[in-house]
Design goal:
By secondary structure, the chain is mainly β. 0% of the residues lie in helices and 46% in strands. The strands form six sheets. Strands 4-5-6-7 form a four-stranded antiparallel sheet, with no helix packed on it. Strand 18 and strand 19 form a beta hairpin. It is globular and about 50 Å long. The termini are close together.
Length: 237
């Protein structure tokens, strides 16, 4: 998902299809491109995340999804899509992350996790779950009300369990600021973005103690955002 989304799409007969790019030789530039399947006569899909088993999470929009018109959270197994849920109407659903256990996280009027065939709500209607690591730790955002003013700040969930309340992370300017966590590695290190004292957002790093937000600065421009971190602590954005 502001999301940690690595998306690829191509137009085919007026439709946009999610794709998977697979390197066939480790040190070459040879790739196999696999279009991911559509559900029914849906006309657009997007792939947002992939796990080590090749399961892909994302969403599809269309007029003839199994649950009717709308935007549905979808998981692809070997290119075959399965609809997780589709609320229909004005509240689209999307899957943003999937870990190696197949637990999926996303957003639909709040952050959610789909584990063991059950959908678990994680937050207020303002929340969003953007990524999940192998330990089941989830990051995203949720509402905060410092002084009665609604802000949306980076959030951390220790697991996808029912009733697991989020820990709201600090911003670069403390209370009253806004931030968003977009990725978490298997050590629990978190990256995303936060507003700064001067206004623009900067890429932000949270240590595993969850207590301190560190400004990763910019490359000279006004804004930046960190969208991924690997297990070696290398950050991209």
């Amino acid at each position: 998902m502001s999301k940690n989304n690595l998306r690829a799409a191509t137009s085919c007969a007026g439709r946009f299809l999610a794709l998977v790019f697979v390197s066939t030789i480790a040190c070459s530039q040879s790739y196999k491109i696999t279009p991911l399947g559509l559900i029914g006569n849906g006309d657009t899909n997007f792939a947002d995340a992939i796990n080590s088993a090749g399961q892909v999470a994302g969403y599809e929009t269309g007029n003839s999804l199994p649950s009717g018109f709308g935007q549905a959270a979808v998981v692809w197994n070997s290119g075959t899509p399965t609809e997780l849920f589709n609320p229909g109407g004005l509240y689209p659903a999307g899957a943003n992350g999937i870990n190696d256990s197949g637990v999926v996280v996303g957003q639909q009027r709040g952050a959610w996790a789909f584990a063991g065939g059950t959908l678990h709500g994680l937050s207020s209607i303002f929340g969003d779950a953007d990524a999940i690591n192998s330990a089941g730790q989830i990051v995203g955002s949720d509402a905060n009300l410092p002084g009665g003013t609604l802000t949306v700040v980076a959030a951390f969930w220790s697991s996808p369990a029912v009733g697991n309340s989020p820990i709201l992370l600090d911003t670069l300017i403390g209370a009253g600021g806004e931030s968003n966590a977009l990725a978490v590695n298997n050590s629990g290190q978190i990256v995303g973005s936060s507003v700064t004292a001067s206004g623009p957002q900067h890429a932000t790093f949270w240590k595993t103690d969850l207590a301190t937000a560190l400004d990763l600065e910019t490359l000279g421009g006004a804004t930046s955002s960190a969208t991924g971190i690997n297990d070696a602590g290398v950050i991209v954005g």
